[in-house]
């Protein structure tokens, strides 16, 4: 059964045994050798395929090219075999922390992989690049890799269930540093003490503000989780060498809770698996069918349906206003409630448009779908009829949709809302959607065939057919892979793909 751990700030003169600290509890979960359930294994395979799909699609995008160049300018460290970098030849290895960095940026660049939303937001698939990089470096087998990934998902999602970071304008990757460190600890079979120190260091080095996801959003949005993964690898290395961490990192008088979160009066209840309880959190996460912020997934599905049923809605001359009644998060983060004028700017960056539900709803309504490149193209955003309709779309805060967004009941938890469209002729059209079509409770829940279809669609422009099949064969057999096969669990781009874009030079 799940154990709920109470967490609060402690004064320096108020003793808190390390065994009662949240970082120690996390480490205990990571060190528990409990078997991984079959359904968790199956979903880990799905998410490895999903990560590879979106990484393939981003190989020639500038942030990925930059991160890959940085990684390949660093040699393999002396303590292992090194790790593969997505797109590069399998024998072109780099140090594991730099592979975690490059591959983490590739996975995150298009904002197109899995998600979990509760008290905080997260993309738990961000745990996979650092854990896989370390697995390749140390020569781990597939079974160990699966165990590590299961822990990474479990810890990040349990923290996300209980501790809100965004409320205090702290970026959500502050939950990723500890989870990736814990996952690496499981992979390596480290002692609780060592994992405890790594978790504390990883948290301490990955707390930052949410400005990376506010206003004019920069390319750092894709780098932030990769940085957390890189810091997790380095934290584990230091902990293995006997180095210690700030403690209590969460509960201390000058710790994270006291100064970055709810303050000295803050109280949290963090659910973690009991000793011997299997790690199943990954089963509660969900992937994306569309390359956009997760809160936009259901709205894209609703918009494409409305556009097909009522094509006249695509013409701004026929529409007076479109109001999306939705949750607090959707309204203030990606909606008009954010107060960000950039969300209505046709010249805004891709990262900014990805966080604009007025833009996303408009394009999906007009185009009847969503494309990870074409829907963000500058010429698409600047199309006059799109701009005219876009300016008529606003969001409105709805208490019931907010309640459902935060519900602990998976059957009523919702990420959509209700749309009210006022037409020029005085009539109105209304409709609603609770979850995306691809959600486990949606109209077309994603299964293995959908993950593989997504991978093939995104990989075919940049990988040879034989390479696609080679990777899928490895991924399907993930828990059975020998160390040499784990070492090859990467993607090799078709000849000429990586050379088609210039590799930037920097300090290294």
TrEMBL record:
InterPro entries: MmgE/PrpD_sf, MmgE/PrpD_sf_1, MmgE/PrpD_sf_2, MmgE_PrpD, MmgE_PrpD_C, MmgE_PrpD_N. Residues 290-477 form the MmgE/PrpD C-terminal domain. Signal peptide: none annotated. Residues 20-265 form the MmgE/PrpD N-terminal domain. This is MmgE/PrpD family protein. It comes from the Bacteria. Belongs to the PrpD family. Gene3D superfamilies: 2-methylcitrate dehydratase PrpD (3.30.1330.120).
């Amino acid at each position: 059964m799940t154990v709920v751990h109470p967490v609060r700030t402690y004064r320096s003169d108020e003793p808190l045994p390390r065994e009662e600290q949240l970082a120690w509890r996390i480490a205990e979960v990571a060190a528990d050798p409990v078997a991984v359930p079959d359904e968790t294994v199956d979903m880990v395979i799905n998410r490895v395929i999903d990560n590879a799909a979106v990484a393939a699609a981003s190989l020639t995008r500038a942030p990925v090219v930059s991160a890959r160049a940085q990684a390949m300018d660093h040699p393999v460290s002396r303590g292992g075999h090194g790790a593969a970098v997505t797109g590069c030849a399998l024998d072109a290895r780099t140090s594991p922390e730099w592979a975690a960095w490059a591959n983490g940026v590739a996975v995150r660049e298009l904002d197109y992989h899995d998600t979990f939303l509760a008290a905080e937001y997260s993309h738990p698939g961000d745990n996979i690049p650092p854990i896989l990089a370390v697995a390749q470096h140390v020569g781990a087998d597939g079974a160990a890799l699966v165990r590590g990934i299961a822990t990474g998902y479990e810890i990040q999602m349990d923290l996300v269930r209980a501790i809100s970071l965004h409320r205090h304008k702290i970026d959500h990757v502050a939950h990723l540093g500890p989870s990736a460190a814990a996952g690496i600890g499981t992979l390596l079979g480290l002692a609780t003490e060592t994992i405890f120190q790594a978790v504390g260091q990883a948290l301490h080095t990955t707390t930052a503000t949410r400005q990376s996801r506010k206003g004019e959003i920069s390319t750092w949005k894709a780098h932030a989780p990769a940085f957390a993964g890189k810091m997790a690898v380095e934290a584990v290395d230091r902990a293995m060498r006997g180095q210690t961490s700030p403690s209590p990192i969460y509960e201390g008088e000058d710790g994270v809770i006291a100064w970055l979160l709810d303050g000295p009066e803050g109280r949290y209840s963090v659910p973690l698996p009991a000793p011997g309880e299997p790690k199943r959190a990954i089963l509660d996460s969900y992937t994306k069918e569309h390359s956009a912020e997760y809160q936009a997934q259901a709205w894209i599905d609703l918009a494409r349906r409305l556009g097909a049923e009522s094509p006249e809605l695509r013409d701004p001359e026929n529409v007076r206003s479109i109001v999306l009644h939705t949750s607090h998060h959707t309204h203030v983060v990606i909606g008009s409630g954010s107060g960000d004028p950039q969300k209505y700017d046709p010249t805004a960056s891709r990262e900014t448009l990805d966080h604009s539900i007025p833009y996303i709803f408009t394009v999906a309504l007009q185009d009847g779908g969503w494309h990870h490149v074409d829907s963000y193209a500058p010429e698409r955003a600047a199309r006059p009829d799109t701009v005219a309709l876009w300016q008529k779309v606003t969001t409105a805060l709805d208490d019931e949709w907010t309640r459902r967004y935060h519900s602990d009941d998976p059957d009523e938890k919702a990420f959509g809302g209700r749309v009210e469209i006022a037409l020029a002729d005085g009539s109105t059209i209304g409709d609603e959607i609770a979850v995306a079509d691809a959600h486990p409770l949606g109209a077309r829940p994603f299964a293995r065939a959908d993950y593989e279809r997504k991978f093939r669609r995104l990989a075919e422009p940049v990988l040879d057919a034989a390479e696609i099949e080679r990777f899928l064969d490895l991924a399907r057999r993930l828990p059975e892979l020998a160390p040499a096969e784990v070492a090859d669990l990467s993607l090799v781009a078709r000849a000429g793909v990586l050379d088609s874009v210039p590799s930037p030079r920097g300090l290294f």
